[in-house]
Amino acid sequence: MKQKLLAFIELITATFFWGFGFIATKWALEASGPLKVTWLRFGGAFIFGIVLYLFNTSLAEHYRYLKKSFIAGLFLGLALILQTYGLKGSSAAQSAFITGLYIVFIPLFNALIFKKWPEKQFYYFLILAIYGFSELINFNIYNLSINHYDLMTLLCAIAASLHILIIDQNASSIEKPFLFNVWSSFWIFAMTFVIEYFLDYTLIDILNPDVIATHFLSNNSTVTDFLISEHPNWMTVLFKKIGTLNLKLLFSYAMLIFGSTLFAFALQIKSQKVLSPHVAGLLFLLESPFALLFGFLLLNERLNSNQFKGIFILVIASLGAWYFSNTKRPRKLNQKIQLEK
């Protein structure tokens, strides 16, 4: 019971930093594009993190974690790229709400892929959580339109749910969660830097109807012409002005690197050794009310009565899922699928 309570507290702490991460990302986006924000964040996390393990960890162990973190790093990187692009066109609070929809996808993918069905009580709190989200976002069933920024964030929720499941399947074999997180950061940095170097912003903006109309439907332009025309010089990618260095920007990257990345994701990996992915997913929802709070205090985003109601419902749903997880039947070891044996 104490071990589960500690994991519960660790995940709440992680969601605190992730909630503030939405605000820090909005501030960073004032000076740089989404891809640059992402590779600077995870590149910094890798550099600072690897220094701590440089002399007290063998090369063989570094290589083992390099391989072990590859798949998790790719899915987390994809989620963060999509989320950062989504933040270009939505508020921190709205992005947090849509990202939180991974709570719907986690049990779906867990059942479809791993044949693991959650306990009956979980579905009661899942329904309660979905209702809480509908209140938070002022959902209107008669207006189901979604812009491409929200679509990017929705795809982020799908990628995030798969990342949570991958961590769950591999958590018991991760003896050093922090080192695993450091090498995951390396893969995310490598992926985002390569994408920016070869494609600049086009990988995501190619889905923007305005971009399609401007570049693909005029002057007989082709996709190849578009990519070549936007292909940046590598020196430009590496040394292009990050923006005006000020305390807000430096604080943003410090929180993204040390808080939201190195510390929070290490807590996630550690806590998922104890908690099921269903319960973890519900607790992750708390990053949304944290984002709402910070958005209200720092970005002047206003909350209405429905949003306050939604926050209260989400807290109750998360606590209920944690309580009923105490009666969850132990998962059989032979059901564990390790990424690396």
How would you sum up the major sheet? none
Q: Cα distance, first to last residue?
A: 29 Å
| Mean pLDDT figure | 76
Q: Taking Cα atoms only, what radius of gyration do you get, to the nearest Å?
A: 20 Å
Which stretches are low in confidence, meaning pLDDT under 50 for 5 or more residues running? 211-244, 325-341
Number of domains: 1
How many β-strand runs?
Answer: 0
Structural class: mainly alpha
How many helices? The count is 17
Shape: globular
User: Strand share of the residues?
Assistant: under 5%
H/E series, N to C? HHHHHHHHHHHHHHHHH
Helix content: over 70%
How do you describe this structure in short?
The protein has 341 residues and is mainly alpha-helical. It has one domain.
Polypeptide structure, described:
- It contains 17 helices and no strands.
- With 341 residues, the chain is mainly alpha-helical.
- The protein has one domain.
- Helix 4 runs antiparallel to helix 8.
- The longest helix has 28 residues, at 2-29.
- The model is unreliable at 211-244 and 325-341 (pLDDT under 50).
Question: What is the strand and helix layout of this fold?
Answer:
Layout: H1 2-29, H2 34-52, H3 59-68, H4 70-86, H5 92-99, H6 102-114, H7 120-136, H8 148-170, H9 177-199, H10 202-205, H11 209-216, H12 223-230, H13 234-239, H14 247-271, H15 277-284, H16 287-298, H17 305-324
Helix pairs in contact: 1-5, 1-14, 1-16, 2-4, 2-9, 2-14, 3-9, 4-8, 4-9, 5-16, 6-8, 6-15, 7-17, 9-14, 15-17
What are its keywords?
single chain; 341 residues; mainly alpha; disordered C terminus
